[in-house]
Records
---
Amino acid sequence: MTKKKIFCILLVILLVISGSFIAYKFIQHEKAQNYRLSTLETSIQGNIAHFMEKQRQKEEYYEYDTAYKDDAYNYLAIGNSLTLIPSWRRGICSTRPDNDYFHLVVKHLESQYDTVVAYPYNMSPWERSNDRHSCLDLIDVYLSDKLNLVTIQLGENVTDQTTYEKDLEKLIDYVRQKAPKAQIIIIGDFWDKKKSAQRQQAAQNTHCAFVDLSEIINNKNYQSYEGQECLLPDGSTIQVSHAAATHPGDKGMEYIANAVITAINK
């Protein structure tokens, strides 16, 4: 083989390698760019949701009027759709109005105390915001020094996890300042082990109880399923959509409730 042929072969190989490297860098750049755009879009949606919720609290303040009592056991559940879908008046995908984890915990508390006052609140704008600290005022209407228990179930909708753990710690501190007597329980992530570990660390750093859901993470036995029929408070029914099917079903809700009850008793 002549030197010229060898040179040509080496040149082709070099061009192929260079082209592959450039293509790889381009693909990586596009992926990073798409991730940044997706995160930005989610953040914008979160900021808009925060603004709209604050407006709703001002315009429909009567819906946020709490009735905590000195002689009652007062409970606030802060979360996302697992805790409350407003149109369902309970956690998503539970088949009946009273068998999501929040209502099951309330039922247990009612067996222990004469009077229980309890509210669930969907704080998902906090998850999606790029400035989660600015969303803390969303829960002012529900926080009180009369609270005995606060559970926090937030993170499933978080895309940018860079400051998630620290932001959760700030949320816990905020709750503790306004509800100093309350037992605070952090509920683990239902889908993501990494985020669940971050929640556990935040709970440890702020001396809160942690409810570990690692046994049921991504376990289909504890999830709902597409087409599952759920009864709404007005007597009508709704079917679980394809997008919602991975949320906790009745078995998952019961597991979460029992884990929270165990943490309360400890």
---
Amino acid sequence: MHRPGTVAAPAKAGASCCLGCHLIRFLFIAAFGVLIAAGTHLLIGLALAFGFRRDALDAGPRTRDWGVWVRSVTNDQIVITARTATQNLGHPGTVGLFWENGYGLVGEVRHVYALDVTRSFEMVTGEKPPVCADPLDDCEQVDLDGYAFPSDPSNRGLEFTEVSFPAPLGELGAWHIDAGPTWAIHVHGWKAERREALRMLPAYDSEEISSLVIDYRCDPGAPLDSTGRHRIGLSEWEDLEAAVEYALGRGASRIILSGFSTGCAVIMAFLERSQLSDEVVGLVFDAPNIIWADVVRANTADLKLPVLGIKASTLMKETGMWLADLMWKIDWEATNYVQRAAQTVQVPTLVFHGTSDKSVPIAVSRQLEAAVPEHVELVETPAAGHVMSWNADPDGYERRLAGFLSRL
């Protein structure tokens, strides 16, 4: 029986209604927030994907890393400087120095004061480098060049022939150094050039091993891949196969494959796919870029968003990688060559990798060694940057390489 003055039931109904309204409003706001966050990550991921394509996939020559100036130079000493610290400025060992009218070698670090680094110096060709007095903006810049030699095998005292060989997309160029029936085929890295192999060629020649230093698709002057982009080995391996056919057709009795950075990915793809892989008796890798996804993650670890100036989140970067794969068929699984190395790497393999490599983490080579310990010998070079183990210790590098080749 209802008692006079009781109004509890209507009050409960009103409270329930208010609670429902608040819940609906909360859910609406939450859903809107999720949509905004998802849309933001998608847009930023798309921007990162296009940036990734521009910086890592599109074909075209690598631009020089200017940003170094010469303070003073004598016949045997040079002082170089930069606005900010760069790895090559004080890199141990020997580094090439390029400027518009010449080339030289910088050697041991003799003195460091702030960003002014005094090093030994040797002219190789051309006029002396331009000397800069303040302000830097008014001066010609120079480039520290890891290749260490300016033009071709003659820089190393080696006789060579410029040759060409037929490949699936057209003729490709190469240097041939005739030294014996075993041939080493050298495959340069992403947007690099044949000069990348000049540092190592004398070790092969001393062991009476012929060398073929090749171009492949998307190199300057070479045919483009059908996609117009670099494929991290997934199509370039066909050009390496053509080079192996060329060597075998000219009397090569055994094949050694030598790769630098992404050139190692080309070699790994060849080992997975080519009917000629059984001709290979040894591998030499330098800073192998053979887990592409890990390399991309390492190089974007400190990536900041344009304009906003804040670090991109892991989710944003993974979204960008997913979109890049979706749009341009990168195939992150296929370009993880280490996960199949136990089946493909069946011959003695020497791997050089610098402990200070900022482009391809040394962890990649360590994973390769762990995957195939019975075949892989990893040489870790302290303080060396990307593909600069020779630069850090030329004598030690060539000694290890020559010893490995003689054992083959």
---
Amino acid sequence: MSQTELTLIPCTSDANSGSVVPVTPKITLYTAAPSQNAVRPELALLEKGISFDKIQVDLFGGEHKQPAYGEITPRRQVPTLVYGEGDEAITLYESVAIIQFIDDMCPEPPLMPPVSEPAKRAKALMRLAEFQQKLDPKNIFGSVVFRKQTREQLGERVDALLEELPRWDAYVGNGPFLCGEQFTLADIAVFPLLMHFEAIGYDYSKHTPSLFAYMNQCKMRPSVVQSGWIENFLAFAREREPGQVLAG
């Protein structure tokens, strides 16, 4: 596993002295450059300005199957986040759970509307749940890229996805984000997945113009740019020449 340490501005600073105040224990993120799941915690950390160690795990080389990685995370998957060190360390290994934990442990700047704004918070919570229960299960990227399945073979799965995406177009509306003006955990969850569909031919500008504008907003987001994820993901996709099963 290769390691790159990122030095970022912590969440808070001492307003009187201007000195940096440590606000979090050591954070280590185990990731894989092109993974849409693994980029979510990185985006949350970058949004917060939290310093963390970023360790790349070679999934295609089977590094996650080695005993050493199994000692870090029982699911042997990325992303895995280790919060703290030694006996006090907390390990999390589901992307949505990780980003929620990050927002709880370092609440500024917030990535969810406050409970004092229940309508906005309810919307963000619903979008997160809908992502997990309705949108993510319709992801066909793996079937296209790794199994080389065609549109004909995917059949109803493509139809279900094409029926689902206009719903998210309506959610964005005038946006610019899923829940209005605030960039939230829902955006961190959903945007990387939407990139999957673009890579296999979905034309947002033609079919879902609000999502098209939304995608452009997310692509320009400083945390997204700093992560370098889009370049890594697109290079990964181009190398595998996926069928454009969502084109048309």
---
Amino acid sequence: MHPSDTHTPGETRLPPNADTGPLAWVTENLLSPWYNAILTVLACLILYGLLHPLYVWGIKNASFGTVCPSGHDGACWAFIRDMWPIFMVGTYPHEERWRIVIVLGVVILLALSLIFKKVRQWKPIWVLWALTPAVIFFLIRGGSITGLTQVSTSHWGGLMLTVMFAAVGMLFAFPISLCLALGRASDIPVIRAICVAYIELIRGVPLITLLFMASVVLPLFFPPEMEIDKLLRAQIGITLFFSAYLAENIRGGLQALPKGQEEAARALGMGYWQRMLLIVLPQALRIVIPPMVNSFIGILKDTSLVGIVGLVDLLQVVFAATANPKWLGHIEEAYVFVAIFYWFMCYGLSRYSQHLEKRYAVDNK
């Protein structure tokens, strides 16, 4: 036994140092040194000042019943409960909403299937994923091909339309951006000039301008008898806009990759597309996962601008619901509802980005 461990009966012993656990973390990160303690207290006071009124309005004094009492000074969540189906699918016919439930179930099952490694390695699963967008479109739209009642895109709206714009924009903008990034890094002057002109032109105008052009100018390039759906025009504008931003993200990954990788592939006798598809792009895309996911989050949030061209996404349908005489004066609940939904969707993408970064981590040492 060490001499320092011996003690006489009744002797007062000091407590052990709290160098682990939550208390130690708080002490080290929030209370040490002294100015961190002051900043922590100030931050807590500011958060309390911001969150306490929200708590009183949204929870303490809120009404969770089916009817809000007159003169009520808290939130009326019956508004959200009553208008929930409209928020999700807009004016999609009630008797046909079972299609949306099936679509949601298919997407969830395919997403869960990718959790298991053996399922991911099953080649037919990727065929199912490739066919999913077309199946979803024809199931929601209906028509003679499917034998279902056709539902015009003018009835599509709410969260369904927001997610659809974002998902389709991501799906089609990604391959376009790959071609643009490779074209901008090409040694062929004509291809490089075309890609640079496209990227700089698209990035030089705001998305709202491109949406107006897609809605007004795009039909002028087609025969008068050819009518292009308003939803399709907005989707083309969103896809073209974000493909330019994604192309710059991917180009950054191409420039960050050491030149030795491509030179080694050349030494092995690989052709251009072999080098790009097997050596360069897999490594470059790993590097640019964070900025690419940031662009995807931007797509998701900026889909709210489609309301400018007459489409009713989640934001527009929620605000339109506040015009209902039954729910006049409940715009605050609408703002909170939309903010929470967008936050959860963007936060989910952010967490998935962190998962991909860890899974495909690149050692640059």
